[in-house]
Amino acid sequence: MFFTFDNLLKKIKIGEKNYDADKITAAYDLASSAHEGQTRSSGEPYISHPVAVALILLEMCMDTDTITASLLHDVVEDTNITLDVIRKKFGSDVAALVDGVTKIGLVPLNTSKEEQNAENIRKILIAMSRDIRVIIIKLADRLHNMRTLGFTDPEKQRRVSLETMSFYAPIAHRLGIADMKEEMEDISLSYLDAYAFKEIEEKLKIHKRERDEFIEKIKERIIDRVGDMNPPPVIEGRVKGIYSIYKKVYINGKDFEEIYDVYAVRIIVRSDIDCYNVLGIIHDMFTPIPYRFKDYIATPKANRYQSLHTTVLGKEGVPFEVQIRTVEMHNTAQHGVAAHWRYKAGLSLKRNTGERFDWIRRILEQQQESDDVEQIAESIKVDLAPDEVHVFTPQGDVKSLPEGSTVIDFAYSIHTHIGNKMTGARVSGRMVKFDYVLKTGDIVEIMTTNSADYGPNPDWLNIAKSGEAKAKIRNWLKRERRDENIEAGRAFVESELKRDNIEVKEEELAALAEKHRFNSLEDFYAAIGYGGVTATKVSFWIKEDFVRKDETAGQTDPDAYIAEIRKKKQSRGVIVEGIEDCLVKFAQCCNPLPGDEIIGFVTRGYGVSVHKKSCVNVQGRLGKPDSGEERWLETKWADGSNILYSATLDIIATERKGLIADITVAIASNNISISGLVGRVLKNGNASVLVTIEIAGVEQLNGIISKLNRVQGVISTERAGK
Ligand code: MN
Predict the structure, then answer these.
(1) Which of 401, 402, 391 is nearest to 665 (CA)?
(2) Which of 521, 552, 583 is the endpoint of a domain?
(3) What spacing in Å lies between the alpha carbon of 330 and ligand 1's midpoint?
(4) For residue 442, what are the domain limits?
(5) In angstroms, rounded to a whole number, what is the distance separating the alpha carbons of residues 567 and 552?
(6) Which of 55, 397, 425, 667 could be 407's S-S partner, Cβ–Cβ 3.0 to 4.6 Å?
(7) Is residue 144 part of a domain?
(8) For ligand 1, a single-atom ion, which residues have Cβ within 5 Å?
(9) How do beta strands 584-586 and 607-612 pair?
(10) Are residues 34 and 134 in the same domain?
(11) Which residue in the list 6, 77, 550, 629 is annotated as catalytic?
């Protein structure tokens, strides 16, 4: 007979923790009537499964909502009860947990390739990372299914075991839930390599009496030495999980007798200091084996595991491992993240907080160990950047997109053709609009048409978020709408010319197009039409070229030119020797900004070149006899100018995914536009990013520099060309 709900309820009531027994009972009532008539492979009524899962979670001291959700975890998928019903009866927290567990079930897993394992683990974690309790329920669900796997057919036993070994046990390990991980591994192994499993089991059995005696003796000897500590340490002896022995014997090819840590003694003390004291005593009593001592108290494992480990040689010449830890460390070691609920009863955690997501992300990022299970999950640590959303295709592939991405971005991330022919989208089964903003965990399906003349319209450019999608949309518009683009581009250029009162010939426009590397004037117009070159840029080019050409023609004599430019109206926000609106150019070597002290230098051909006074080129030439001092002009900034200037920043940062995006966001969020950006990886592994921005002055620039210095990973930000 299976464990009944009445037994569960009894346990709930006698336990130390305050549970809402009415809520849990209501969940049981709903689940048991919903699953009415359904049976498990074992022949037991289906409800025995959710009750067993709830029991596992109760033993982990999980909270009321988790227990409630676990009783309901299969109803949405397997019965006609909807999520809305659960939300109304049990609140949105329970509904979100049930929804999360149901969705994980929908993520298709692929056990065929090693790399895909890591990818799948990542998927599961991502899907569940909104609320860690979802993972814990799913693990309990899987653990019970493993315990009852004997009732299913061999094909399923193998498949489910492989899945558990590949994904669920590593996740349990990752979250530090050691006892769950070990049980999952051992059951999986018993199906995946039944022969080896039995052999190890037999060997352990043969030596069971010896082993028990051995451990008892060790325990006694240790108690003799430390028993007068207050409170006396708790000493446990144990044999390691079958799978961990299996790995050493069958995978690493060691002799069964050679495995040091088949035997393990655990000493649980009160404080950190006691841990080190006991370690000293142990090393005094037994001979420590070199290189086997590990201090996980000073440097905890990524999953927060802490303990001192040492392997020593007993009198009998048998090596054994000693783990020394405090009660708190022990709790974390056994229950991992679940320990949180065990001792912090009543602590309510907010759902969907960034904090919770971050916590998992940090775990994933900090993976540095490399035992076998670790290796599988090693590559999980990839791009779980918080400013990305991770969504799934109906086939279960993960797509990572910038936060704020829409279904259009998703469609283009799958394939250009899918994007171009997209007529609609479904998210987790529901139709959504084109501007639907994707959330992590969404399962997205794109509807397309085969109609030849269907394609994106220019509005999509405003809806798409990712550069990739925008580029592809522009590309399509460019190719498929060339005639319209040319017309639009031509109209734009004509209106610009008209507005600025500039008259140019067709050849001059063609020359302009050629100068900016367009094959023809038509290509130039087309590019304007599809957005390949921005309107602002084009109007800038037009003004720069045509006006300047007109005004600088024939200027060779500096003196004559000074006289000339003093008459001209070409303000760039500086006053040259008391004259405003003078044709100037800012020196490339130092790129002065308002706020800098400046000086002008008359150049042949293009007016006054403005340098910073501190510029090396000025310092080197100013005052030298052959420099012609009359060529240097007092120059200062005009007040109240709202002109923007170019400045280039040299950013050095540790290379990471999302760095460039973070830098551009930091700049763009101040409404400063970026006119150029070049990134490269330096020899020492750091990244160098040169970014040119349009800026009003030194003050604003300093603001941006300090903002950039706060971007994660940025080592220094300096203005280029000091
Ligand atoms: Mn289930």
Answers:
(1) 402
(2) 552
(3) 29
(4) 387-459
(5) 12
(6) 425
(7) yes
(8) 74, 141
(9) parallel
(10) yes
(11) 77
C-alpha closest to that of 265 among 308, 306, 297, 295: 308
Q: Is the pLDDT of residue 579 over 70?
A: no
| Residue 40 Cα to ligand 1 middle (Å) | 10
Length of the chain: 722
| Residue 657 amino acid letter | K
Asked if residues 403 and 658 have their Cβ atoms less than 8 Å apart, the reply is: no
Q: Ligand 1 centre and the CA of 17: distance in Å?
A: 25
Task: Provide the residue type at 415 as one letter.
Answer: H
Q: Is the pLDDT of residue 569 over 70?
A: no
74 neighbors 34 (Cβ within 8 angstroms): no
445 is catalytic: no
How many A from CA of 342 to the centre of ligand 1?
Answer: 23
pLDDT at position 353 over 50: no
Residues forming a β-bridge with 187: none
Ligand 1 center to 73 CA (angstroms): 6
Catalytic residue among 20, 59, 78, 484: 78
Is residue 382 domain-resident?
no
Task: Please indicate whether residue 557 or residue 520 has the higher confidence score (pLDDT).
Answer: 520
Please indicate, yes or no, whether residues 170 and 29 belong to a single structural domain of this protein.
yes
Provide Rg for the chain, Cα atoms.
35
Cα–ligand 1 centroid distance for 546 (angstroms)? 73
Co-location of 110 and 243 in the same domain: no
CA–CA separation, 528 vs 497, rounded Å? Answer: 15
Task: Say whether 699 is catalytic.
Answer: no
Residues 6+ apart with CB under 8 A from 132: 175, 337, 356, 359, 360
Instruction: Examine the domain organization and report whether 562 and 624 are in the same domain.
Output: yes
- Domain's final residue, options 162, 190, 218: 190
Report how far residue 383's alpha carbon sits from residue 376's, in angstroms, rounded to the nearest whole number: 16
Cβ burial, residue 647 (10 Å; 0-12/13-18/19+):
buried
Structure tokens at 609: 């070149």
Total count of domains within the chain? 6
From ligand 1's centre to the CA of 78, what distance in Å?
10
Asked if 329 and 419 sit in the same domain, the reply is no
In a domain? residue 22: yes
Q: Which residues pair with 716 in a beta bridge?
A: 652
Same domain, 129 and 264: no
Q: Which of 18-32, 39-53, 301-315, 358-372 has the lowest mean pLDDT?
A: 358-372
Nearest-angstrom CA–CA distance, 22 and 224: 50
Q: Report the relative pairing of strands 263-269 and 674-681 from DSSP bridges.
A: unpaired
End-to-end CA distance of the chain: 82
Q: What is the pLDDT of residues 188-214, one digit of tens each?
A: 999 999 998 998 888 888 777 777 888
Residues 98-145: pLDDT tens digits? 988 887 766 556 555 554 555 555 555 665 556 778 888 999 999 999
Are 317 and 218 found together in one domain?
A: yes
Q: What's the rounded Cα separation, in Å, for the pair 271 and 368?
A: 27
CA of 386 to the centre of ligand 1 (A): 30
Residues 220 and 317 in one domain: yes
CATH of the domain at 77: 1.10.3210.10
